[in-house]
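Hey, resending since the last one bounced:
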Amino acid sequence: MFKVVSLSRISVQSNDVYHMTLAANDCQNTGIKHQIPFCVISVGANVELYLHNEGAQSPGAFKVRGAAAALTELLKDPTFTKEVVTASAGNHASGLADQCFRKGVKAIIYMPKSTDPVKIKNCTDNGAEVRLTAGDFDDARNAALEFSKDAKIKFIHPYDDYHVIAGQGGVMVDIFDKLKTQTPHHVLVVAPVGGGGLMAGIANTCLHLAQDNPGWHFTVLGVELLPEKVETSRLQTFLSTGERIILPAVNGFAAGAAVKQLGEKPSELLGYLKSFKDRIRLDASVVTRDEIIQSMKDLSENGFTLPTQTDPSNKTKKLPETTAAMTVAAAKQWVIKNNNEIKNTTIVPILTGSNISQEMAESCLRVNLNSLTAIKGT
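The structure tokens again:
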């Protein structure tokens, strides 16, 4: 049985978040890459996907953007003790550890014991103190929040923070920079949904880009992988009813999106944005493990490489992690369902991260799609 949580009124203005996004994107000394070229692959006859690969970031995922924005804001406070704590299934932790190392801030990070070792190593290599916890992300978050309260150390939430959301919105600023010289048209942006911070940041940026650039229209498609025996999408339910349901469990195969409930602040913003249907559309999609694995195989066949085969100085075509591959699977679904819209649409799946172990990547590529139980993490 699902628990339903009511939604309060939005506590910050969309315009404020957009200005925070632009400020975060202009921030110096973060190491964030902004000019990441599209990787174009074909799916079916005359249909191309313009992949934007955030795995090319130094910490291997888009999460560094939100971490940088939140930490930059904290550093403006003269009373800040230069210590932070967070909880993460991996990529937020990697991004925050990277930014803390750059800015001389101590990071204490709570992570589930099931976290991919690659993501744990990313944190410890940058000097973060990692504390592994039993259970899933929600258990790690609860432990981190308790420690933050007891130790009086600032907690940086991986998605329920407007500065983090604003930082993630910079992904869309960079995507549009690659498209804006074209004749205005419809753009479909596909993003995985865990707590909802990335989707909220992207959708908010899309609204303001549409307002400032007549003729452009955007659809933001959020993607989920549901746990077994659960058929109710958190995002679809929210977009339809405004209710933030809590799932009884998560599917750890896509660990980066394994969150039981949409965050309050991302939901506040998405709830506000869904009324602007003349400029942006918000939609939801659910994919399966089969579709994710097939998408990873498709990417491998299009030149995306295993971790040990990737040039560390150019990670643009490093094979993405399972959460990131969800967007390719959802884009393929959309193409089948919306064949009449394809001609005038640029389809941009966001490959959100590439922090995947060699073992996990190889397992996905060699698995028999009729025997998924062999995959670690299912």
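DSSP finds twelve helices and twelve strands in the chain.

Sorry for the duplicate.
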